[in-house]
Amino acid sequence: METPVLNSRILIILGTLVVLGGLYTLLRPDESAAPAQTRTIQLDIRSDVMTPDRVEVARNDVLTFNVTSDEALELHLHGYDQSVEVEPGVAAVLRVEATLSGSFEFENEEAQTALGTLTVRPR
Amino acid sequence: MCARVRPLTAAWRTRSSVPTRPDWRVLAGPAALALGMAPTGAALAHGFGQTYSLHVPLWLYLFGAAAAVVLSFVLVGFFIGDRTAPDGYPRYNLLGAPALRAVLTNRLLLFVLRVISVLAFILVVAAGFLGDQNPSSNFAPTFVWVIWWVGLGYFTALVGNIWPLVNPWTILFNAADALVRRLGLTDDLELDMPYPRRLGVWPAVILYFVFIWLEIVYEGAPAPANIAFLTAAYSIITWAGMVYFGKHTWLRYGEAFSVLFGVFARFAPTEVRVTDAEICKECGLDCSAANGCVNCYECFEWAPPESRQLNLRPWAVGLSRVEDMTFGRLAFIVLMLASVTMDGFMQTVAWVRIESYILPPTVIHSESDYLAVETLGLLALPALFLILYYAFSLLIRRVGAIRARSHDVAAAFVYSLVPIALAYQFAHYYTLLLVQGQSVIALISDPFGWGWDLFGTAGYRTNLRFLDAGVVWYSQVALIVAGHVFAMYLAHVIALRLLDNRSRAQRSQYPMLVLMVLYTVSSLWIISQPLIVE
Questions:
Q1: Is residue B35 within 8 angstroms of chain A, CB to CB?
Q2: pLDDT (tens digit per residue) in A54-66
Q3: ipTM tops 0.90
Q4: Domain span at residue B488?
Q5: Which of A24, A100, A112 sits opposite B46 (nearest CB)?
């Protein structure tokens, strides 16, 4: 009496694992291939609005931001805790090695206003 | 801008860049002052409570949802086993081992814990009123919202309920009681007025609602002065309740956090038990049970050492025990189930759509309009949950041909949904605890934000290295699916107890399965949404 119950339970567990494993491989996108990139990104700040306000990269990409602004400000990237002083009319350079994944805010440090986000996808 | 940065919804969110809105700060200032609070200063709140998390990608959400459905159907057949008594789970009494007993009943250890708790309480009020008003550089917001509210909640559910031991309101009340006795002013601080039975836990329901309103809707929640003001106000309510009705009565029916942590503690792998049923009957307050009482802290306090147990038990089994489920208690639990969902939902684009449907962006609305809509939302969702839950209870009763009253069926199953809410709460907030929680290391050295460095830790910088977004995704989905499995298991145990017929018990679980899948999938859906921040 005991054995069939036990067997059917093992079968149920195995069946479930197979179904879930199959679903997982089916749904999971293939992201393995792309190697880390080196990217240069232009950021323009005009009257407290940054263009683009969303930047999306993959983890371990090496980023160079060329930042211009119409007023003097300190651009701060949360999480990475990196900042760059920007003078009007002069392009400032912020280098970021995107080693942390997640969503990180760009902030005008003195005014404490959010200017945009850097999204770093995990690999 | 869409990104998942502020996890505690409105509490951490500045509205200024939701384009359709006026600059609410101008309007909220006078409103808050009228309420007797400091202006919210949400501009200063910037940067507080960031977790840097990314929303779960669509494919993983779909996988999680599918896993919940597949597991549900498998488990319906899998769990049906033998009927178990409410006490029929394995237990190990930690007080039975002399070494453990010495540690766990150590008076010095308890004293130190209590001193820390009272010091933290005083520090919250003092730093809130006197300290720097930037939430990130003041001890009060991080301690209250992150360490205490999120951290202690997790601890209670995962380890055990230490709130009855460290509740600062109880400790200070006991101290005041001892003081007035010593001074000979009165022989008892408690008036012990008869508590109206009709009231039940409704005072706690109302206070809990106010608390979640502050957390989810009120913009000024991270402002230190507001936290201090609200803590002081809640202290007055709590002490007044303790004096008027007696300490234990108020803790059981009125002190919202004792009631809430009491629900969390049912999931915990520890319980306090008084084995002598006679003692449980005498100490009153709904503690009487056939063979001793579990997590009746007042009885435990009075019981002689030989009838006290501190038991290790499997997780979640406490949620299959249903003692004295009044409508008020059911409402409290449904409010908890709904509020964790509402907390996340109010940050989604879907909610912004609903809000702009009610308040069309073509007209300029005042901040109080948004406050009203959000408050209505916070009232509507629990009401909807309650109606939905009752409807499903009726279905369970009908499908299972259960003879019990429909309220009793609803009462029996409501705890089984708690693991789904807990799991969502964990998934939603654990990054906040890990990221923002770290800043308490620096804040403890400089609680007022005055540039102190008491313990040499003021310069501590938050470390994010260990928190990979991919790991966060998988753990969030895994947590929610695990909560679903716990919930399904509990519902089965309860169904078997309610019905002596196995096949009817199994059938009664199909409506429950649908309800639980709905609840779990909506949790998953929220964590897969790009959340509105500013």
A1: no
A2: 999 998 999 999 9
A3: no
A4: 7-87+340-528
A5: A112
Q: Best residue in B1, B15, B52, B477 to probe A by mutation, most A CBs within 10 Å?
A: B52
pLDDT tens string B202-237: 999 999 999 999 999 998 999 999 999 999 999 999
Name which of B295, B293, B289 is nearest B271 in CA terms.
Answer: B295
SS3 per-residue string spanning B217-280: CCCCCCCHHHHHHHHHHHHHHHHHHHHHHCHHHHHHHCCHHHHHHHHHHCCCCEEEEECCHHHH
Distance from A37 to chain B by nearest Cα, in Å?
Answer: 19
**Quick check: is B325 in a domain?**
no
CA dist B20 and B532 (Å) reads 14
Amino acid identity, position A37 = Q
Inside any domain, residue B287: no
Domain endpoint, select from B250, B268, B286? B268
For the beta carbon of residue B116, count every other beta carbon within 10 angstroms. Answer: 12
B6: left (phi over 0), alpha (psi -120 to 50) or beta: beta
- The structure tokens listed for B46 are 């910037």
B133-171: buried (b, 16+ CB within 10 Å) or exposed (e) per residue? Answer: bbbbbbbbbbbbbbbbbbbbbbbbbeebbbbbebbbbbb
Chain A window 70-109: which residues touch B at a Cβ cutoff of 8 Å? 78-79, 81, 99-105, 107
Q: Judge whether A27 and B63 are in contact, CB under 8 Å.
A: yes
Distance between alpha carbon A49 and the CA centroid of its chain, in Å?
Answer: 21
Nearest-by-CA chain B residue for A19? B70
Same domain, B130 and B214: yes
- d(CA B120, CA B228) in angstroms, rounded, equals 12
Look at residue B444 and tell me whether its pLDDT is greater than 80: yes
